Amino acid sequence: MTEVTRIHGYSHAGEGVGRFEDKPVFIPFAARGEVVRFELTGRKKNLARGRLLEVLEPSPRRVTPFCPDFTECGGCHLQHLDYQEQLNFKEERVREALRRIGRLNHVSVRPILGMAYPWHYRHTARFHIRTSPAGVEIGYYRPQSHLLVPVKSCALLPQDFPPLLQYIKALLEKEKEVAREISEVVLRRGLGTGELMVYFRTNGRALPPGWPAAKKLAEAFPRLVSVLAARAGLKKAKPTVLYGRNYYYEHLAGLKFRVPGEAFFQVNPSQAGVLVEVARRLAGSEPKYRFLDLYCGVGLFGLALAGSASWVFGLEESRAAVEAARINAVLNGINNADFEVGRAEEVGLILEASKIRPDIVVLDPPRSGASPEVLAALAACRPAKMVYISCDPATLARDLALLAGQGYQVVEIQPVDMFPHTYHIECAALAERL
Fold first, then answer.
1. Contacts of 348 (CB under 8 A, 6+ apart)
2. CA dist., res. 378 & res. 380, Å (int)
3. Mean pLDDT, range 260-282, rounded to an integer
4. Could you say which DSSP state residue 356 is in?
5. Which is it for strands 35-43 and 48-57: parallel, antiparallel or unpaired?
6. For 22, which DSSP code?
7. Which residue range forms the structural domain that includes residue 31?
């Protein structure tokens, strides 16, 4: 069944939104303002979905996708839009989430900070591995499926990732028994150092510490400093070092960071530096302030803010990340920062035991956001400011609304495009105590 509609906007995932039978229809890869022909693929009570068949009236914002696998790969969502339209969509997505979810209609949303060169920025990437009689395949899953799309080249990845993937594929082709144990491989690269890390995730049996293929990898790629392996699904499992060390180094925001394989670090280091500068501006520079860095990871925000603080306390549940944060403080000559292992939900008890109340809180929770209990505990400490770093406008809007109900005014939101050509968007929000 084919239909025609005009696209009047975008969904939160960047799909074109038209009308069908007096309800919205979501059509991937359609652009705002276009008239398109589509095939109906599903309908529910309040919406429908379609597959783009033909663009009858193209938008001036439409461009030819730079990747031939764009619609199949699933790694990107917006290659059919020029970069300015992508930024327009993302800024509007933030405003819409604030209005619809947070009921925060009068918050100042600053113009989004895009990239001057939005290519080769993704310095952490996860790839699936499948072994069959036909050989070894490495790539992304096609959207809404478990069909593998091999990665041969990608304009979002650092230029040494594709040849590294091809070399890994060739090694695993020769070691089928080992290859059957591996389900994923994560590649990481320091933007400021060029150091590479390869992290295998296995289905069950661990890879041997002296696996010869790991040394072959390092010989072929001189910048490779770490080859690790751990069982998939075990969040707290300490990885086995197959070659080199358990970490790589990154230079960012004028600081040096040691990043262990099992610790989170920003995917786009270039824009992470921009995000740090935004956080510094929102937090202010009063030297007497005491900072709480919640969900601190390896100490990115806490250490970046330590120069304008009397004291920084970081809390993080990953032991490996906290150990790295402590080392990073020493590496950078910072002696007014403490980092402890603990769950964010325990922050109220931990702060009460320390007898210190933070003046400013910086929190960078996972995509799911902060729980109401965490936000209530923070509000009870009555910090003058909270700087909330978020990678999901929906959970950001939800949590800011909760803070607004606990005596905080949302002053400003600064979107930062950390993920060009995808629908994802990062924000830094400032909430001040009334």
1. 376, 377, 380, 381
2. 5
3. 96
4. -
5. antiparallel
6. T
7. 2-62
CATH of the domain at 161: 2.40.50.1070
Instruction: Give 29-40 as a DSSP string.
Output: T--TT-EEEEEE
| The predicted structure's pLDDT at residue 234 | 66
Whose structure tokens read 């790295």? 324
Residue range 23-33, pLDDT digits in tens? 999 999 999 99
> Based on the domain organization, do 297 and 246 belong to the same domain?
no
* CATH code assigned at 19: 2.40.50.140
pLDDT tens-digit series, residues 156-201: 999 999 999 999 999 999 988 888 899 999 999 999 999 999 999 9
Indicate if 244 and 186 belong to the same structural domain: yes
User: Is residue 220 pLDDT above 70, yes or no?
Assistant: yes
In this model, does residue 399 exceed pLDDT 80?
yes
User: Out of 73, 154, 391, 427, which one is annotated catalytic?
Assistant: 391
Q: Give the 3-state secondary structure of residue 186.
A: strand
Query: In total, how many domains does the chain have?
Result: 3
Alpha-carbon span 172 to 140, nearest angstrom: 17
CA 2 to chain centre: 37
d(CA 258, CA 278): 22
pLDDT band of residue 355 (cuts 50, 70, 90) is: confident
State whether 112 and 133 are in the same domain.
no
CA angle 211, 213, 216 (to 5 degrees): 130
386 strand-pairing partners: 361, 431
Helices (H), 294-346: 300-305, 319-331
Sign of CA dihedral 341, 403, 106, 81: positive
For residue 90 the two structure tokens come to: 């993302």
The reply to whether 67 belongs to the active site is no
Q: Please tell me whether residue 409 adopts helix, strand or coil conformation.
A: strand
The 3-state DSSP composition of the chain as helix, strand, coil percent (nearest 5) reads 25, 35, 40
Residue 95: count other Cβ atoms within 10 Å of its Cβ: 18
Q: Are residues 315 and 399 in the same domain?
A: yes
Q: Given pLDDT bands bounded at 50, 70 and 90, which one contains residue 235? A: low
Name the residue with higher pLDDT: 134 or 403: 403
Higher pLDDT, 148 or 84: 84
238 pLDDT band, cuts 50/70/90, is confident
Strand-by-strand arrangement of the 311-316 sheet = 108-109, 408-416, 426-433, 385-390, 360-363, 290-294, 311-316, 337-341
CA 79 to CA 66: how far, in whole Å? 7
